[in-house]
């Protein structure tokens, strides 16, 4: 690199820190290259000279730190003492600020210390002695303390980040030897402060001291048995931060920012202490610590157990500590249920009570409280731990013990799932609403855990809450949120109940139909509609309740909750189709009325077509054409009009996709061949989709011609036809010729993934049919040839631009060769090109083409021995296949994809064992292949390992992964 002009560098730095993002991006690369150069060791000091701008000084400091972190090998051994002295002088120089520069210099000293621990073993002691004992003249005591804490805090983080030849485990062990000294030093300082008044600077340094302990414990670890005294000090600090402000009669009861920050830092450090990896090995100490937490913090949570409390942040941290403790020490605490130890039982009871209080925090999450969400995971953990107990007697005892707890929890969850009402919703942002939606889903999951403990008894609890809520509504009709929460709670456990429950669910269904929805918020109706859909399995076993469910769903179709109504109706028609036969015509009429109104969203109309298809399938053959004409004809009329007009606008494109989606959904559900043990005898096998297709196939060709450049339109049209083919199966044969014309019309303009997929569907379904075989042979050839044309017209470096099409091409070919390999036994198909482009696909960076091309080649090799021309193709290309696979494993393919190549080696070895041995040896004989990082002995070992594996895929994958690690030079990093 050319010599760096300092003036130019300073200008660049000033522009970088004071410019827009676009300008910064332009300068970033140059500034980074300057930092990486060896000259940076000199100019970093020049930039930190007095009189320079803060930005320039800061860049000098981060450059010095970067060099120490990444380029320590550039520092000659004889210059290291001088470097230390210069860093210390710079720290003293910037002791008065700017703090930004001083902070980075302290971190630089930390990096230096980590590198020098073997040569300067007393480094940490020396730093503590120098700054704690105020040996630096003209620098205030508080600043010297600040510097010491910054240096100490950064050491564990630098230990993990620096580039060094020393093994990380060795380095960690060296740093760990100093943990007791660091904790003792900071603990002594904090203890001294407990009896003093705290000003802003004291708060600042105390927070740093606590962070320092937390960082060492988190990154290095410190025996939990040695943490009792520091934990007690941290708890005293939390209380000293909290109680004065709440007990001040002239104050607002709200902690200051400094108090809050210090208290939160203490609590986070306590979490680091109690969740250390090996702390479960010391249950007595864990018990002592958790009891300390409860003794010193429960009064705070009790004081703040109210909505919109002033000190929500600290309460959140306290509950987070309790939850972390119980999750980390769940086995210890569970013994509190079965143990005769009264203290352990009391500890368990107190801790669970606190977590229950956390779950039951007054107010609505996340606007009025922010704690309750963190407790929900505990309720899964508790029941999971109980049911995982191997001792049956203890398991049953624990189960009986937690039943009342989960019964209480069920009532709490109903309350916590209440939505904001009309009076408070204006205070909510879109982020708040999304957080609440996720929170309600978590509550729904927690109801399931309650069911695991309570079984059917949960319905008794929910039913009692429902009764109470309805009684309250009689006196206060505006409290719809409570009723909505009850319905949501019933919905959450619906999947556990089939038709056998006959006590509470019938009552619930009656309540749903008696609610005066028109007098209440629409959200109540929306949840009721979702609940009907959730209980479809129960309705199937209790069909007498279906009419009331239908009545509610039809009501919802014509409301602002039509989305929920279409979802509920879809589930009803899917799960209770045969039971709906008596109601099919009225329901179809209701659906058509709703569709004709034009008031539904497009997505709801599309979803409704699924129900229409299921209902239409129940009609007698003579009635179906009439409903097809009424409901489906408008779709094709609009599509035909758009095609005839030839007008392509964003609006016509949206309408085309919408109408095709409606047709596609109908085709997926309209099937009169009802395969069910309870099939109604008078149903005849009439396939109305065929009637529709015979009339409308020309429209699909017109759509393909008009919208050939619009991939989404083509995809939707192909999706509709694919549903028709799968639905009709052999009945589709009369339309097969038209389908081929449609596909070829697309191919002739563009080869795209949707056309490939529908081709595969047709070929796999009809190739074995003698009447269709010739047509499917032609389609197979067109399928391959048009794909080749696309590949041949693509620039060598442009294959990633068609990655989706390549992925689909080889995915379809894999299905074809797997199910009907004889279809590819055709002289018109160039096997050498198939293999050539599959190898090309293997080397792309995208995962899809890698996966499908490997799968295709694997199946091609598997089938090849049955077909002479395929055999010859593998014999001709075998060495190229293996060479490309090895290149991909060695350096081309992302490491996480390497194991996929095992199948290629495995099946070539199965089908061509003698040839494979020769091919591999020829390939590996090439010097420096696949990379210079693999020597001849390692290559020979790899060949032996691969040839030996003809069955064990897992072991072969392991060999490939190890070879990839060596070939990429990653061995040292993965020790």
UniProtKB/TrEMBL annotation:
Family: Belongs to the importin beta family.
Short name of any one Pfam family annotated for the protein: Importin_rep
Keywords, ordered alphabetically: Nucleus, Repeat, Transport
Location relative to the cell: Nucleus
Main location group: nucleus
Keyword Methyltransferase: no
GO biological process: protein import into nucleus
Residue ranges of domain Importin N-terminal in the record: 53-93
Protein name as it appears in the record: Importin-13
Lineage, broadest ranks: Eukaryota, Metazoa, Ecdysozoa, Arthropoda, Hexapoda
Assembly: Interacts with UBC9, RAN, RBM8A, eIF-1A and PAX6.
GO CC entries: cytoplasm; nucleus
A GO term, aspect molecular function: small GTPase binding
């Amino acid at each position: 690199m050319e010599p760096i002009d300092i003036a130019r560098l300073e200008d660049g730095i000033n522009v970088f820190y004071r410019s827009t993002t676009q300008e910064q991006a332009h300068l970033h690369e140059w500034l980074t290259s300057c930092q990486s150069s060896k000259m940076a060791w000199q100019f970093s000091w020049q930039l930190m000279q007095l009189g320079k701008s803060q930005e320039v000084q800061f860049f000098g400091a981060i450059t010095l730190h970067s060099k120490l972190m990444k380029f320590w090998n550039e520092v000659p051994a004889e210059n290291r003492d001088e470097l230390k002295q210069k860093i210390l002088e710079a720290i003293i120089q910037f002791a008065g600020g700017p703090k930004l520069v001083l902070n980075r210099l302290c971190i630089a000293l930390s990096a230096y210390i980590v590198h020098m621990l073997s040569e300067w073993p007393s480094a940490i002691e020396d730093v503590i002695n120098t700054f704690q004992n105020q040996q630096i003249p003209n620098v205030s005591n508080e600043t010297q303390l600040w510097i010491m804490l910054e240096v100490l805090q950064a050491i564990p983080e630098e230990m993990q980040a620096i580039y060094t030849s020393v093994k990380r485990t060795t380095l960690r062990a060296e740093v760990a030897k100093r943990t007791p000294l660091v904790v003792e030093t900071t603990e002594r300082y904090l203890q001294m402060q407990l009896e003093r008044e705290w000003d802003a600077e004291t708060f600042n340094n105390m927070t740093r001291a606590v962070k320092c302990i937390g960082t060492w414990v988190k990154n290095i670890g410190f025996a939990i048995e040695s943490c009792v005294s520091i934990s007690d000090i941290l708890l005293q600090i939390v209380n000293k931060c909290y109680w004065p402000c709440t007990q001040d009669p002239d104050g607002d009861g709200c902690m200051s920012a400094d108090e809050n920050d210090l208290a939160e830092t203490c609590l986070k450090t306590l979490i680091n202490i109690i969740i250390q990896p090996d702390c479960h090995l010391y249950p007595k100490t864990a018990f002592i610590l958790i009891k300390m937490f409860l003794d010193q913090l429960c009064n705070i949570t009790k004081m703040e157990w109210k909505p919109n409390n002033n000190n929500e942040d600290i309460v959140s941290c306290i509950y987070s500590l309790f939850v972390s403790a119980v999750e980390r020490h769940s086995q210890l605490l569970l013994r509190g249920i079965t143990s005769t130890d009264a203290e352990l039982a009391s500890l368990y009871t107190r801790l669970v009570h606190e977590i229950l209080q956390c779950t039951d925090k007054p107010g609505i999450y996340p606007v009025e409280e922010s704690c309750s969400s963190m407790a929900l995971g505990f309720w899964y953990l508790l029941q999971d731990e109980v049911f995982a107990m191997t001792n049956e007697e203890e398991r049953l005892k624990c189960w009986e013990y937690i039943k009342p707890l989960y019964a209480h929890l069920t009532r709490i969850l109903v309350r916590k799932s209440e939505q904001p009402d009309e009076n408070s919703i204006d205070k909510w942002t879109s982020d708040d609403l999304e957080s609440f939606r996720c929170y309600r889903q978590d509550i729904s999951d927690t109801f399931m855990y309650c069911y695991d403990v309570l079984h059917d008894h949960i319905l008794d609890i929910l039913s009692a809450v429902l009764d109470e809520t309805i009684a309250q509504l009689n006196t206060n009709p505006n409290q719809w949120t409570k009723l909505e929460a009850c319905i949501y709670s019933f919905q959450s456990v619906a999947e556990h109940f089939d038709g056998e429950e006959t006590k509470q669910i019938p009552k619930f269904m009656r309540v749903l139909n008696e609610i005066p929805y028109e007098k209440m918020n629409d959200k109540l109706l929306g949840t009721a509609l979702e609940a009907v859909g959730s209980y479809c399995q129960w309705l199937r076993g209790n069909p007498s309740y279906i009419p009331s469910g239908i009545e509610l769903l039809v009501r919802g179709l014509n409301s602002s909750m039509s989305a929920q109504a279409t979802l509920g109706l879809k589930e009803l028609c899917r799960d209770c189709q045969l039971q709906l036969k008596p109601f099919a015509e009225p329901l179809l009429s209701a659906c058509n009325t709703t569709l004709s109104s034009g008031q539904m969203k497009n997505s709801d109309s599309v979803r409704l077509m699924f129900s229409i298809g299921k209902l239409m399938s129940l009609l007698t053959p003579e009635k179906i054409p009439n409903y097809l004409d009424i409901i489906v004809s408008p779709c094709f009329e609009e599509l035909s009009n758009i095609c005839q007009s030839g007008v392509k606008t964003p609006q016509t494109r949206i309408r085309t996709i919408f109408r095709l989606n409606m047709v596609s959904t109908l085709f997926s559900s309209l099937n009169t061949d009802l395969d069910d043990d309870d099939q109604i005898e008078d149903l005849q096998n009439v396939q109305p989709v065929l009637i529709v297709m015979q009339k409308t196939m020309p429209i699909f060709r017109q759509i393909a011609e008009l919208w050939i450049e619009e991939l989404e339109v083509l995809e939707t049209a192909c999706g509709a036809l694919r549903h028709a083919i799968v639905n009709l199966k052999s009945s589709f044969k009369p339309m097969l010729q038209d389908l081929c014309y449609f596909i070829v019309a697309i191919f002739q303009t563009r080869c795209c993934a949707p056309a490939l997929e529908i081709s595969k569907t047709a070929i796999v379904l009809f190739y074995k049919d003698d009447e269709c075989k010739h047509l499917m042979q032609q389609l197979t050839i067109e399928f391959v040839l048009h794909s080749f044309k696309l590949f041949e017209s693509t620039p060598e470096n442009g294959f990633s631009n068609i990655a989706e099409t390549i992925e689909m091409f080889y995915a379809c070919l894999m299905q074809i060769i797997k199910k009907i390999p004889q279809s590819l036994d055709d002289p018109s198909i160039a096997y050498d090109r198939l293999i050539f482009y599959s190898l090309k696909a293997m080397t792309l960076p995208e995962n899809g083409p890698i996966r499908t091309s490997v799968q295709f080649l694997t199946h091609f090799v598997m089938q090849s021995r049955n077909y002479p021309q395929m055999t010859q193709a593998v014999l001709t290309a075998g060495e190229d296949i293996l060479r490309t696979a090895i290149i991909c494993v060695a350096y081309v393919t992302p490491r996480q994809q390497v194991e996929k190549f095992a199948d290629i080696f495995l099946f070539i070895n199965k089908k061509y064992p003698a040839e494979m041995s020769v091919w591999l040896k020829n390939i590996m004989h090439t010097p420096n292949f696949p990379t210079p990082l693999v020597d001849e002995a390692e290559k020979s070992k790899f060949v032996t390992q691969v040839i030996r594996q003809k069955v064990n895929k897992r072991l072969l994958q392991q060999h490939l992964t190890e070879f990839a690690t060596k070939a990429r030079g990653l061995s040292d990093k993965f020790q």
